[in-house]
Design goal:
Elements: E1 2-6, H1 13-24, E2 28-32, E3 37-40, E4 47-50, E5 53-54, E6 60-63, H2 70-82, E7 86-87, H3 91-98, H4 100-109, E8 117-119, H5 126-132, E9 138-142, E10 151-154, H6 157-169, E11 174-178, E12 186-193, E13 196-204, E14 219-222, H7 227-239, E15 244-252, E16 255-262, H8 268-274, H9 278-287
Parallel strand pairs: 1-2, 1-6, 6-7
Antiparallel strand pairs: 3-4, 4-5, 8-11, 9-10, 9-11, 12-13, 12-15, 13-14, 15-16
Helix pairs in contact: 1-9, 2-3
Length: 291
Amino acid sequence: MKIGILSRNANLYSTRRLVESCLKHGHQVEVIDHLKCNIVIEEEKPRVYYMDHFLEGFDAIIPRIGASVTFYGTAVVRQFEMMGVFTTVKSRGLADSRDKLRSLQLLTKSGIGLPKTVFTNYSKNVESVIDSVGGVPIVIKLLEGTQGLGVVLADTKKAATSVLEAFNGLKARVIVQEFIKESDGADIRAFVVDGKVVGAMKRQGKKGEFRSNLHRGGSSQVIELSEAEEKAAIRSASALNLGIAGVDMLQSSRGPLVLEVNSSPGLEGIESATHLNIADEIIKYIERNPK
């Protein structure tokens, strides 16, 4: 098979591992910088022009689209779909997962447990927003934030009011969520491929840090999911129509609560924690879906 990996950097861990697995399985592979692709829209002949040639003969693509280039990256994925190329992450699922508000709406429609969440149009009545999620402490998240950036824990009503008023003044879109105290600064990342959890890890924030992101100094260890956690992860990926997904959950007294579904989850953290070959699972997924 001829497989394209949409990635801006061939030296990134995830990209390297996917290339290695493609070659190990006997496939032809090319790393394609999606920002250097030109989309040619022509009647009955959609094409992608890259560098100095048209991209042709591909059986599948693996999108590794960064959050900052979601719009153009999604357009490139959509063009490959129109060309009849199989993609491990569909353009609609990619776009939905990057829209924090829409993704939460889709998840809750599917009956998946979430922290209580409120979104408003720069409401001046911030006290009612705080009360709507059960009072302080609350978590305030920028809709455009990634890797723990733009996430604030407000312990008091005064602090929460100040932060919300500041964001509102900047016309920054935020969501407000209840703080799940019993999670104790930890969350779970479940890696889903083709409707199956192929690996899971528990991430613990460093002391005094409620965010568990590995990019922010957190640690990780392998974990065996409960039946409820595995079911929540698989249903979350399905709700957003994602063939590959990193589902982030909190363990709470009322069961697993999904925080976010990542459509381009990194391989380094999950492979290091679990010692599993997740890249191989992705290539096997492609092999089960021939062109």
